[in-house]
């Protein structure tokens, strides 16, 4: 059964119990009230009848229609009815009351059944010693009144109960409609194919009815959907990146593998060739193997940096960042004499950081090599070291043609290359900047790009506290 139906039935059962208690109490009160009224009437009439019996020996004044009056002489347990008397054929209940009244100090009143007549209310009073007046009034009118009251109560309570159940169920259905809407939304989400790489779920719980509690539930429900949307978007993006990564890695590894296979085939049939040719084939095999080894080392390093390990694969030590930059600059000048390089230190003192000097040197060498590879000969390159608050900054700037706007957001993606036409021997595999960013983040810092026409700036931020 639905919640609204159960609540409506529960409300009906509760109302029925309340109606039963109220009806019983009201009926009992009405019966008691009518019986007291009848008793008061008997008492009032007996006041007059007692005087009549004392004066004439019997009651000459006629009672109400259907009422009976009798005067008894009581001697011990003997009871004698005085005549004439207006009594029913069955006088046993009246005589019993007269006998009891003769031995009582107070007036007596009881309800008795008179054969052939019905139920009567009897009241006795002592006219004088040994003389008892007994009056009997029918309680049929009281019973009929109570029966009519019970009938009216049953009809009214039944109509009220039916109206309460019908309108209550309607009101409950209206009040629970927001919950039903959320249930339909949940069913729609359950039927939605979450395995697709969809961006967002097209369902939300709307409406303003239901009160504060339902509004809080609706807000929590929509917040949950937003979280699911974000999770699905992240998962879809991760799947796309994984597929792109696998495709790029396969492509990058396929080229050196094909070269190794080709040179191996040439070497197999080069037994009769000159020694110089064989050495040239072996050199190419070693070069392709070394290139593939570097690519695999970068992939392994990225996997270790991405893994949720307790410690990053770093060997930290107190290192002078300015000296480390100077060493990278000297190596760059020796390897790239066609690119003039300037180093500027704007820090108030030598910034000593807790870092892995080999990995940070790898980041600097990568950024400087990237500036030389992607700019023409003669392009000036500069490196600036500074301190801002609790952060050390290293800016690598070149005055080359810059990076296109459509590639700036993806320069740190793995296997992404800005110049697709550049050969791999000159342009690399596209892992350098990804490795650099992962290494910097492993030190608790970050690396950002600011590019425009005629200037490309990579800014490395490292915390002065370093990595513990």
Q: What's the SSE blueprint?
A:
Layout: H1 3-56, E1 68-75, E2 78-81, H2 92-102, E3 108-114, E4 118-128, E5 131-138, H3 140-191, H4 211-268, H5 275-306, E6 317-320, H6 321-335, E7 341-345, E8 352-355, H7 357-373, E9 381-388, E10 391-398, H8 405-408, H9 424-427, H10 432-442, E11 446-452, E12 455-463
Parallel strand pairs: 7-9
Antiparallel strand pairs: 1-2, 1-5, 3-4, 4-5, 6-8, 9-10, 10-12, 11-12
Helix pairs in contact: 1-3, 3-4, 4-5, 5-10, 6-7, 7-10
Main attributes of the structure:
468 residues, alpha+beta, 5-stranded mixed β-sheet, 10 helices, 18% strand
Please summarize what this structure is:
The chain is of the alpha+beta class and 468 residues long. It is built from ten helices and twelve strands.
